[in-house]
């Protein structure tokens, strides 16, 4: 489908070099998933040292590129200038691009999208190229960039978990033990929330029973610098709104995409800072994961965060109480077509067609290639079913 339409042709660039790994798959991919489709790549001619990979992708309306640079310590001082040169050369090689995004990493510590954060990032829509060029030359400000302030200004790094959503799971663990009475009360809340719908003691599985004509569209693991411009563009064209469950570390490095979400009427929610399973953590550490993300998202959007989704849907009575103490409702889902398992477009289409219903909550991932393949059809199908896709906050509760 969509990826088949993205064959690249350029005198200055060849796009048939397969990427060794898909940026964005590092932290969310769970064991047992099928390999993702290989993304087209752009090769600059002549080659430029420090360019790790340049991925190119489209959504049927616009095409964008994401350049990953890995620089040696000697090159760090020239990171802005190098980024500016790469962006200019990518635009020269592909005049059809609507946006070029760039992530600059330290070569010795680069470990993919889930590893140590970049040295700097930037989003450069075509209309903003002159502003970006001025910033890289030190001649003015640019609002669609982020420069790493150093580890002393960031939360202590935790390695992200590879978590597969198999369904919301209430567990207990030695790090967060629950008394039998506490577990029983939590299970009662879970059962009530599943049966009646609506917000039951800070738990939300679906809209209030009897809801008609509306369902929540949600995306986990946002934002990603290649997929976000394409996803936001499709939602804007369709008029649909969504709730983005944001990984804090991703929002840290790409704050301008979080601002875009809020500005376009979407809802920004909490998916922990490092995308880690919470039950193995101590309660203070689990609370930190939520609090760090809340504080960051509020600083970016100026709005309070209302909703939280635990990675993998794996939670304990303690984590639910921690979320409530921060004013968060814990949100699960009714419809998970498994886009990050890469089952194939036809399988995804069959799954969401069979599960979409009014009052439900749809779970997708913002950096899954097959999600992007089928999203236009999904949005069209929802309209045909007279189901308006909206934010979690837009559901009757």
TrEMBL record:
Secretion signal, residue range per the UniProt entry: 1-15
Residue ranges of domain NodB homology in the record: 213-390
Pfam families from the UniProt entry: Polysacc_deac_1
Source superkingdom: Bacteria
InterPro entries per record: Glyco_hydro/deAcase_b/a-brl, NODB_dom, Polysacc_deacetylase_ArnD
SUPFAM superfamilies, A to Z: Glycoside hydrolase/deacetylase
Region (Disordered): 144-188
Protein's UniProt name: Polysaccharide deacetylase familiy protein
Organism: Deinococcus metalli
